[in-house]
Write a structure and sequence with these properties.
heterodimer; A: 390 residues; mainly alpha; two-stranded antiparallel ribbon; 16 helices; 4 strands; globular; disordered C terminus; B: 516 residues; ABC transporter involved in vitamin B12 uptake, BtuC; 3 domains; 5-stranded antiparallel sheet; 20 helices; 7 strands
Chain lengths: 390, 516
């Protein structure tokens, strides 16, 4: 596949272009409205709202990660919050080391909770986290390693569908229980908080927050493009084939396990990065981030936005979370009713999510144009086989 | 003589108490126990001694009882009364004296406690008392306890043959008290000698200690197994409803936990309705919870789930939405706080099997209850018309329909059955966890793991899977602690599923192929 063709695929992604433009608009407007517009003006964006926007974009990245594997490869992971939280913990460990002697107990090396638990020295797995680059590596490597090991075993023994979902959920639940333990060395149920600065910049300063939001927006845009490239590639078409008819794809000679493992690892890394961006903005990470309900919520965002569309998933995350913020503030009693009803109604009446609303109209116009991916792949194999026989 | 108690020193009080009880008049017992429980007071105005009903300091005025006639003697204000104090030595003496009176109590449990109390501080006088009691004691348990006490006493006898006989008699008892006493005989003392001068007796004692240790180790394993089975029973109970909805129907019912929560709240409401009959209310709560949760399940199936058959991941999302609505519903109706559900009297307490093994009644109840529920479910599935229909539809829906089975109705009934059993599980859960809106969430993962581990679609797999998970958890717990044991079990299950993706008892044949 040539680079030119790959580019045209992205170019033809009109909804994606709108989505990227939206991100760009947010990345420009948010800092301007927060920094340059005076606080007295009605157009001023408070730092609280700015942080909310940053948070939503982190969730949107998590939704992209879920959509990549669920929407395209048909792997429903109910443990993606675990990868998100692992990335967050990696970032949190760096931020804890940055506190240095400014903690309550003033120990230059040990974080407060370790002093409190009477630990004498830093556990081995904390070494290196005083360097930002090391944390960056860990943010990607730790979720990737977990996804690699878990996925390798699971896909190889053909744990699929519902079983895979339940296993990932159990994994995330086991991790949550583990991180709740004080002896793990990750702060027990309080987790990490009271961060001071990142790379020398004060985390409580508005400017740092603005930069974090812009970085998050850039990361979100980059993740979107990366996902789009993956799903537009030949591998992407194979993912859809696996989603629609896994055995058939296997019988056509594709190594289904390797493809699934690969996309699962990529998705885990994306989730980890989202978590790492999330932690400095909300200022806390604790084991409840591993809670199975968080993973399910991420799946819900994707379902509401529209699975298998990428931009729909991201928009779903923003919309649902905006609604959550609004309802829990204005009508806390009603929030769970609304959220619950939303899931039921979306699954019953909008199987393609909100993004499906527009698509259904278009499909009516070009009826019959959609060719199942599996046929395309089948012909592909036919051609290559024919070439070999020549 | 009573009047002196107020002014007396502790030593004098002890002497007074001795003299009083030497008469052997049982009417002195209330006075002794009142003194023991800080309920004996002196009225300042006339220096007379009374018993008060309660030692509660918060009451302004207290009801008085005359210590001799035990008749009510009016009440007095708190300020006018001075409590007669006791010290450790005096309390110890009082307990022994009270126990003597209790030896002839008609209640065997009281007598047993009295014997144990006396054994704590044994002297020649109380030994004589026990010996005479042993001759007339009708209850075997109390008699055995007396025998132990006498055996322990004979260990101090000067005659080595009497000591040997005592050791032989004591070998059969497994209480830690006896074991420690025998072990002390063979331990060398600080100066190199032995507490027991006779070599033969020492050997017998050593053998007895080894025998007792073996039995105690055996009963330790039995106890762990029993605890494990009771933990496993809970797992089976929470999973067996899901084995129907998920295992037989293939519906990923994330609202399963909330159906259990409904059952638990039904128990709470039943107790509110009949606060004076807790024991009956819990029995009535079982069918009530079945109906409430079952009806909810039928409504769920008819309005939502039937549109989603064949799309398991979508059912997961929809039922998760339902679970949120149910949680909030309970929060709105009962508030977000935990509700306390009382345990009926017949479910509390322990059964002392022997010196080494005691079994708590509520654990025994949960095991029995689980087995009964499981047996009933099995009978429903294998022996009734509904069960036949359920199996027919799950094996071949189209063919069942062609044979005239109303598949829609069977679906609703199947889901209702699974949900109703979740409700019953909720009744059991209400007895040992907090009844709150989050009750369901804490069990949902466990129940899915049990069903997957046992093999989807196989009820026996759920039973074996749940029980073995409980036992493994209980075996690990002493070494790893509760949380780590749980993590280890989860990880072990994840690894197990990688190797055997279809669980302990996989379905075979065509039905298995078409189910995935």
């Amino acid at each position: 596949m040539s680079g030119v063709r790959r580019w045209t695929m992205i170019e033809h992604d009109r909804a994606g272009a709108v989505f990227l433009a939206l991100i760009a608009a947010v990345a420009i407007a948010a800092p301007v409205l927060n920094q340059l517009v005076p606080a007295s003006s009605p157009f001023h964006l408070s730092t609280y709202s700015l942080t909310l926007i940053g948070k939503y974009m982190c969730y949107a990245m998590l939704a992209l990660a879920v959509d990549l594997i669920w929407g395209y490869a048909g792997i429903l992971s109910l443990g993606h919050a675990a990868f998100f939280a692992l990335g967050g913990y990696a970032m949190g460990m760096y931020l804890m080391r940055q506190i240095g002697p400014r903690g309550v107990y003033g120990d230059p090396i040990l974080p407060d909770f370790m002093v409190f638990l009477n630990w004498q020295k830093l556990p081995w797995f904390w070494t290196g986290f005083n360097h930002f680059w090391f944390a960056l590596v860990a943010i990607a490597a730790v979720p990737a390693a977990l996804a690699l090991v878990f996925g390798w075993f699971a896909f190889r023994s053909r744990v699929t569908g519902v079983y895979f979902s339940i296993m990932t959920q159990a994994l995330s639940y086991a991790l949550m229980l583990a991180f709740f333990r004080n002896d793990m060395g990750f702060g027990g149920n309080n987790g990490f908080t009271d961060f001071k600065d990142i790379l020398g910049f004060d985390l409580h300063a508005d400017r740092t927050r603005v930069v974090l939001v812009v970085v998050t927006a850039a990361a979100l845009a980059a993740s979107y493009l990366a996902c789009r490239v993956i799903v537009s590639s030949r591998a992407g078409r194979l993912f859809r084939a696996i989603r629609d008819a896994e055995s058939r794809a296997r019988f056509l000679g594709y190594r289904v396990e390797s493809y699934k493992l690969w996309v699962f690892v990529v998705s885990a890394v994306l989730a980890g990065i989202a978590g790492a961006l999330y932690v400095p903005q909300v200022g806390i990470i604790n084991p409840s981030e591993f809670a199975p309900i968080n993973s399910i919520e991420a799946v819900i965002w994707v379902a509401v936005g529209g699975r298998g569309t990428l931009f729909g998933a991201a928009m779903g995350a923003v919309l649902v979370n905006y609604a959550k913020t609004y309802f829990t503030g204005a009508l806390p009693e009603l929030w769970l009713y609304a959220l619950g009803a939303l899931f039921v109604l979306v699954t019953l009446f909008l199987p393609h999510g909100l993004a499906g609303l527009g698509r259904r109209r278009r499909r009516a116009v070009q009826a019959g144009a959609a060719v199942p991916a599996i046929w395309v792949l089948g012909s592909h194999v036919g051609v290559s086989l024919g070439n070999k026989l020549k | 003589m009573l009047g002196e108690l107020g002014e007396a020193s502790f030593v004098e009080k002890e002497a007074i108490v001795e003299r009083l009880s030497a008469r052997g008049d049982p009417s002195i017992r209330p006075l002794l126990s009142a003194l023991l429980e800080d309920r004996l007071i002196v009225r300042q105005s006339d220096q007379r001694v009374f018993i008060v009903k309660s030692a509660d300091d918060s009451l302004a005025s207290l009801e008085l009882i005359d210590p001799v006639s035990l008749a009510g003697a009016g009440s007095a204000s708190r300020d006018d009364l001075t409590r007669i104090g006791t010290n450790n030595r005096l309390r110890k003496r009082l307990r022994a004296l009270v126990a003597r009176f209790d030896l002839s109590n008609p209640d065997a449990a009281v007598r047993l406690a009295a014997v144990q109390e006396i054994l704590r501080s044994l002297d020649a006088e109380s030994l004589e008392l026990l010996r005479s009691r042993s001759a007339v004691e009708p209850n075997a348990g109390v008699k055995a306890e007396i025998e132990i006490g006498m055996g322990l006493a004979s260990l101090d006898s000067g005659d080595s043959r009497a000591r040997l006989a005592a050791i032989a008699a004591l070998t059969r008892t497994l209480s830690p008290q006896v074991r420690n006493r025998l072990a002390a005989l063979v331990e060398p003392t600080a100066d190199g000698g032995f507490a027991e001068p006779d070599e033969l007796v020492r050997q017998a004692a050593a053998r007895a200690v080894r025998a007792i240790d073996r039995w105690r180790a055996f009963y330790g394993v039995v106890e762990t197994l029993f605890f494990g089975l009771s933990v496993g029973s809970v797992l089976v109970l929470v999973a067996v409803g899901l084995a129907i909805t998920f295992g037989v129907m293939g519906v990923i019912n994330m609202a399963h936990g909330e159906l259990m929560m409904l059952g638990a709240y039904t128990t709470y409401v039943m107790q509110l309705a009949m606060p004076n009959h807790i024991g009956v209310s819990i029995l009535l709560a079982v069918p009530a919870a079945f109906l409430v949760a079952g009806a909810t399940g039928v409504i769920l199936e008819r309005t939502i789930i039937r549109f989603l058959y064949g799309r398991p991941l979508e059912t997961l999302l929809a039922t998760f939405g339902v679970s949120l609505v149910l949680q909030q519903l309970v929060r709105s109706l009962f508030s977000a706080n935990n509700r306390s559900v009382e345990t009926p009297a017949w479910m509390s307490g322990t059964l002392q099997m022997n010196g080494a093994l005691s079994i708590t009644v509520n654990r025994l109840c949960i095991i029995a209850f689980t087995l009964v529920v499981f047996a009933i479910l099995l009978i429903v599935l294998k022996r009734t018309r509904l069960g036949l229909d359920i199996r027919a539809v799950s094996q071949n829906r189209a063919m069942a329909q062609a044979m005239g089975i109303r598949t829609g109705w069977v679906d609703a009934m199947t889901f209702g059955l699974g949900s109703g059993i979740a409700g019953i599980a909720g009744v059991a859960l209400s007895q040992f966890t907090n009844v709150g809106p989050n009750l369901g969430q804490s069990y949902i993962i466990d129940s899915f793991m049990v069903v997957v581990f046992g093999g989807v679609g196989n009820l026996w797999g759920t039973l074996v899977g749940g029980l073995s998970m409980g036992v493994v958890h209980q075996l690990l717990e002493p070494y790893a602690g509760a949380v780590l044991a749980k993590i280890l079990v989860l990880v072990a299950l994840i690894v197990f599923i990688q190797r055997w993706p279809r669980g302990l008892f996989p379905q075979t044949g065509r039905a298995a192929e078409s189910q995935t």
